[in-house]
Amino acid sequence: MFSDTSVPIVLASSSQYRKELLARLGLPFITCSPDIDESPLPDETPGETGLRLACLKAVTVGKQFPDAIVIGSDQVAECEGEQIGKPGSFEKALEQLKKMRGKKVIFHTALCVRNGHDRNPDDTIQKDIVKTTVVFRNLPDDELSAYLKIEEPYDCAGSAKNEALGIVLLEKIESDDPTALTGLPLITLTTMLRRCGINFFPANEHE
């Protein structure tokens, strides 16, 4: 296995949330924002959109860092079959929260790891989707509006930051990977990184 410093790792994202999550692993990495169109394709399911975009981010940034391990991730929310992305504004965020209140929402968090260090084409790309089911509380308009003005989560799919005050809007969270809802499923990611040869506990540092 590689030591935690012998192979470059690139996070293909400008998201501060994903950056903070990846930093928990204690591995050195850099970030690079991919220049891609994140619009869903016609007749594409939320999961398909998320996985396509996660892979597109990893592959796009991988062209700039061909020998690196590149991590791409994307999240799409789904409420009653409808895709829910980043609102971008107060008005759209309030509309989203009103639509989701009292309902079950599925967050599809897609992950793609491109291993430029591996010369075996069959092992170059790893991808997966982690689903998180969230039940939103049935809160009145004034509380939803107040929340948005405090936290301004306009860059979050679903208009709520579960790791902060947005947790007040939620009644239940069900997931096999607790960090997936925030934007980067670390359990799934560490499994993929191990397959890339990353050693999280170099022996010489613990002797």
From TrEMBL:
Pfam families: Maf (PF02545). It is found in: Cytoplasm. The record marks 17, 75, 163 as: Important for substrate specificity. Its main location: cytoplasm. Its cofactor is a divalent metal cation. The active site is at 74 (proton acceptor). Keywords: Cytoplasm, Hydrolase, Nucleotide metabolism. Transmembrane segments: none annotated. It catalyses: N(7)-methyl-GTP + H2O = N(7)-methyl-GMP + diphosphate + H(+). InterPro entries: ITPase-like_fam (IPR029001), Maf-like (IPR003697). Its EC number is 3.6.1.-. CDD domains: Maf. Nucleoside triphosphate pyrophosphatase that hydrolyzes 7-methyl-GTP (m(7)GTP). May have a dual role in cell division arrest and in preventing the incorporation of modified nucleotides into cellular nucleic acids. Belongs to the Maf family. YceF subfamily. This is 7-methyl-GTP pyrophosphatase.
